[in-house]
Amino acid sequence: MIHVSVESSWDGDAILADIERRAHDLARRLADRVAEDAGARCPVDSGKLKGAIQARPKGDDFEVVVALPYAAAIEEGSTRNGTGPRPFLSPALQTAYGEMPDVARSMGLRMATGGSAPAIPTRHVPTAPRIPTNKEVLRV
To answer: Which residue, 28, 61, 96, 114, shows the most beta carbons closer than 10 Å to its own?
Structure first.
């Protein structure tokens, strides 16, 4: 009779924790890149818009916010003011999506790649857009 015993030193919990930590770091880096690129692309008058673009944690995720009541009107245009769209946030998102594999690779991660970047949805701008209040935030 032959008896075989296998011992493993594989620590699945530690591996999963490392994957979660790396994914969290990747999300943070990409959010920072989006905020930086959006700041470089935004139209500058007083500098308030550029200064209001932030990447910040939201639970286990990150979000890029522009906490100004007129940010959406600049990004999407405003029929009230007769201004056309001057997108700064959506192009920054598209760029970050394309850079994601390179950022992951720089962190020692491998990503499955393929396909094209998804279209970044924009809100429908009605004829008379409602300008967000000071408490509202443009979230992406």
So the answer is: 96
- The DSSP line for 120-139 is PP-----SSPPPPPTT--EE
Where exactly are the structural domains of the chain?
26-111+125-139
Q: Which residues contact 67 (CB under 8 A, 6 or more apart)?
A: 52, 54, 137, 138
CB neighbours (10 Å) of residue 62? Answer: 19
**Which 3 state secondary structure label does DSSP give 108?**
coil
- 121, amino acid identity: P
Query: How many angstroms separate the CA atoms of 85 and 98, rounded?
Result: 23
Question: Strands across the sheet with 138-139, in order?
Answer: 53-58, 61-66, 138-139
pTM over 0.90: no
Rounded to whole angstroms, the maximal C-alpha distance in the chain is 88
How many CB atoms sit inside 10 A of residue 122's CB?
13
Mean pLDDT by 10 residues, the chain (140 residues): 63 79 86 92 89 88 87 86 86 86 78 53 41 42
Count of residues making up the chain: 140
